Amino acid sequence: MAPDTQISAALRQVSAERIQRTIEKLVSFQTRSTISAQDPASIAAGHGIGAAREWIKSEFERYSRDCGGCLEVKTDSFTEPAAERIPSPTEITNVYAVLKGTDSENAKRIVLVTGHYDSRNSDTLDISGVAPGANDDGSGTAVSLECARVLSKMKFPATIIFLTVAGEEQGLDGSSHFAKLAKSEGWNIEAALNNDIVGGDRSPQQDSSVVRVFSEGVPAGASETDLRLIRNLGGESDSPSRELARYVAEVGRTYPDDVKPMLIFRLDRYLRGGDHISFNQQGYAAVRFTEFRENFNHQHQNVRTEDGTEFGDLPKFVNYDYVANVARLNAATLASLASAPAAPANVRIITRKLENDSTLTWQPSPGGRAAGYELLWRSTTAPDWEHSQSLGNVTQFTSPLSKDNVVFAIRAVDKAGHESLPVVPSPNR
Ligand SMILES: [Zn+2]
């Protein structure tokens, strides 16, 4: 990937101080439990999730005023019925800002960044106790907001959505509603970046040079036919989410930063889930960013000290420079994808007869922005792409390499070197 000087300049605008102010403001609402107060009096008093929601909305609106109204600020509100962690029907509101693409065809393509603005303490049903949620997930919310502030000063052919959701701690309710809405509206979300616990907790064993990027292997929505192909052809590590994770790794090499992505080839950590899963379940490519090492005393815990050990998700444990580095990696990924052509369509590998050569065919990248295509390949045992070859502006290519020995993919590239997500071919008899 060729670095884009405009993207590099935008990354320099990401500010640890701004992120700190955002996180401290979120903490000031005392609790952002999804089932906490959202009546007008509580909002006016700056207490509870309703106040947090209104503040996030006003921040997006402020960024929009600074870019001549370039952001469309929206809410997605719905009533979640009573459930295990929802004692009575509760209104949940996702707040988001849309930076619409400048090219009518490519504007239909969407890349998205999200964090959850709700918080919790030891008891998920506690509606008024202090739940600062500085790291979980004030940090991810701050990443989404900071990406919006910085990237809204730029223009991209494709659309970027900066999302903040609620209801995560009650069961991924907000993201689940949003992903289903996207699916039902036919939104073409090419990538969803979920940031959850990216505060870089300042415990001694933390590695602040690393952020983990989790991605599903076998797609949640794989059909029986898909599963048969995956089993026969070794497709376990080539879901769209996995290709997105590799794209993040490449962005990390192209725009070097003080934090490096560490790809984790699993959906999420043991015993845990997150909002990327809601997008995966609707068939979208989505990954999760999380700090290298979590301190579980500082998550989902009432603020207290026991035998000299401090518990609670307090701002003083957050490393703001680290959050800023993670925000840069997110912003670079969003900007690269939103600048790139769409991925080539209908990518096939011809398997009509037994032969050692490998012929791939595809349809041009929709939207007319591709200047050419590249072939990628790797050994079947390699975690990431090892080789790439420029093919020019063609829609068919025969490689002397055997498809039995490597994994191939095709990606589209524009004149400036922006790369689409790669597509692994399906067999075509
Ligand atoms: Zn979380």
Helix content: 25-40%
Order of helical and strand elements: HHHHEEEHEHHEEHHEHEEEHEEEEEEE
What's the total helix number? 11
Runs in which pLDDT lies below 50 for 5 or more consecutive residues are none
- What small molecules does the structure contain? zinc ion
Number of strands: 17
Average pLDDT over all residues:
97
Descriptive report:
The chain is an alpha/beta fold and 429 residues long. The strands form four sheets. An eight-stranded mixed sheet has the order 1-2-4-3-5-8-6-7, with helices on both faces. It has helices at 5-12, 16-28, 40-45, 49-66, 134-151, 168-171, 173-184, 224-233, 240-254, 275-281, 320-339, and strands at 71-80, 90-99, 109-116, 159-165, 188-195, 210-215, 260-264, 286-291, 304-306, 309-311, 345-350, 358-363, 372-379, 387-392, 396-399, 406-413, 426-428. It is 31% helix and 25% strand. It is built from eleven helices and 17 strands. The site of zinc ion (ZN) has 6 residues, from helix 5. Zinc ion binds at residues 116, 136-137, 168, 196-197.
Summarize the structure.
The chain has helices at residues 5-12, 16-28, 40-45, 49-66, 134-151, 168-171, 173-184, 224-233, 240-254, 275-281, 320-339; strands at residues 71-80, 90-99, 109-116, 159-165, 188-195, 210-215, 260-264, 286-291, 304-306, 309-311, 345-350, 358-363, 372-379, 387-392, 396-399, 406-413, 426-428.
